[in-house]
Amino acid sequence: MEKGILYGVGVGPGDPELVTRKAERILREADVIAVPDKGAGEKTALRIVEDLAAGKELLSCPTPMIRDRERLDRCYEEIAGRICALLEAGQIVAFITLGDPTVYSTYIYVHKKVLARGYDAQIIPGVPSFCAAAARLGVSLCEGAERLLIVPASHQAADCLDVKANKVFMKAGRAIGELRDLLAERGLLDRASLVANCGMEGEAVYPRFADVEDGTGYFSVVLVKEPEEPAPGREKQEG
Amino acid sequence: MEKGILYGVGVGPGDPELVTRKAERILREADVIAVPDKGAGEKTALRIVEDLAAGKELLSCPTPMIRDRERLDRCYEEIAGRICALLEAGQIVAFITLGDPTVYSTYIYVHKKVLARGYDAQIIPGVPSFCAAAARLGVSLCEGAERLLIVPASHQAADCLDVKANKVFMKAGRAIGELRDLLAERGLLDRASLVANCGMEGEAVYPRFADVEDGTGYFSVVLVKEPEEPAPGREKQEG
Prior knowledge:
Cobalt-precorrin-4 Transmethylase, domain 1, homodimer, disordered C terminus, 5-stranded parallel β-sheet, 5-stranded mixed β-sheet, about 240 residues, alpha/beta, 10 strands
């Protein structure tokens, strides 16, 4: 029997309309939809594609929010094992993931393990949350010569503030207070905005980060724009 | 008469299947599709949504690839003027843009000018090219505590190599030779990959950047992964 294939499918940041046509097609074609479960039945990615997943066989994939690498690795190994059994039986498996599968996703660990066991796995990109947050705020992430630095907020945000770049802090929920203090110290509070639960239930948009209250959701994206520099004169000579 | 609205629509990196359902709906609803034209009839974004644009009124928007800010500003002002005349007449205008409208797009300048003239403008996010390139390579952009730095390759790439982060160099086409020398100097050549024209005609995937020939396309994305550090011991204590 021909072996199946695993697709890591980015379903975008929350709004079901931000699913791509490709994700839609693959979810329709899939025999089994693998759904990450961070605990307490929290299956955000599944809610986004409820219409496409209706009636499909679901495979719940427990990926607890812990930092114990060995324990996590055992979780991913177990998920990979269950997926490979399905692939061996010729099934098409779509592992759904919030945003894009290459940006801080759990999927990528499963992807590597499935490839290592000799099966085929492909990544289907999606709209990352920071693009949706910038769109919701009506601002750019980066223009012209600007750089963009993407940082997981829970991992020591302090030392990145000296990097000359616009910044995105992902999953800022628990780190909001710390981040506010850091930005205030650097005089960057007026240049920071926040979007919580972008495109999802409980969406909150704060063009001014100073207005944010503690306890906003885990799915918070903070955008900090570098102060503008005067245009270098030499650029006038080109073109 | 009710005024129209401008949508800045990200159509994704090249593959027509990576267009979102929302972009699809808005392009169907639009009266006029505004198409950026970088010169020589090069309308990459239009090719991606040819099926949706068929039969629609098109507004060609010349945005020459120059760095003269004043001349460019006059181009954007003229485009904004023409779009606002359509909005005044109650039309819905969709300005299509490659990738995502908040990441190095021409659209954002038009967006600001249209808002400044008192009209409504909204951004519809899309899949950025770097997510599609990473997906095509089958690798992550960032995992766990890793950071990601996004850099326009044509703007002095040298000084960003000391930033501790995975890196994406956008529109690397003309800067390939320079980038190769820089990466070789830092011993990073083995950690770099390139995708040219991702999802478009002439796609080329180089998991090893060292294999890239000069003269690859303008739409090249280079991904450089930071060397891995040993896991800090304290992470074992959580969870």
